[in-house]
């Protein structure tokens, strides 16, 4: 244990409620939310943020503080995989920090780009950076997001891995980005595999593994997952080490035939059961 009492952030908040300094109370509630998020307790982080927003509704909130609230909202929506709403909050946070020339505006922009990448629309990254914000805010953090977006657009896991190596500090040392790196890797690996197998009707799994430069077992497991998740139509013939690829209509027909067979079998069983009851 780290020695942190998970209940301690609540105490100052309770004491402050007796006073009439609502801005200070809101700042403490926001800090509570950040602490809980760092500890990995997203529900309590969400509850503390809701309290902070409720307090903020009854007072004037300076732009910098409002931006901090919006940033934390975006981060927590990202934890819940709601990147569309997260993007909106990061945009508000960016605007707020930008209006007072605060350096956190750069983070707001970086998380906006991250949201677009997580939503599977990497083309939007370049569109966002062609405007005035792209001219004003430049740096390695933004370059890292552009490179990851490029990997997503090209469906190429090797570009992603090179980017992680080249921008280690900007990606792995940013806890918000770090939290989503595994999901980014998994999503991109799926897309890269689909890109490789798209031209084929039958393909050796060993060939796919060699093309993507990953171990056979990793590729086989991932292909199974993609098929189970219905992100690609096909079957794995593990005996011969071959992936048989269906087009959409062929896959649908197979599924329909299987359902029909099960339905007919069910009817036969019902008839036999009724006959057996009469005999007894």
Global mean pLDDT:
87
Helix/sheet category = mainly alpha
Q: Secondary-structure element sequence?
A: HHHHHHHHHHHHEHHEEH
Number of helices: 15
First-residue to last-residue Cα separation: 66 Å
What are the segments in which pLDDT stays under 50 over at least 5 consecutive residues?
none
- The portion of residues forming beta strands comes to under 5%
Give the strand order, joined by hyphens, for the main sheet: 1-3-2
What is the overall shape?
flat
User: What Rg do the Cα atoms give?
Assistant: 26 Å
Helix proportion range: over 70%
> How many distinct beta strands?
3
Largest sheet: 3 strands, antiparallel
Commentary on this structure:
- By secondary structure, the protein is mostly helical.
- The protein contains 15 helices and 3 strands.
- Strands 1-3-2 form a 3-stranded antiparallel β-sheet.
- β2 and β3 (242-245) form a beta hairpin.
- α1 (10-17) runs antiparallel to α2 (22-38), α4 packs antiparallel against α5 and α5 runs antiparallel to α6 (104-118).
- It is flat and about 85 Å long.
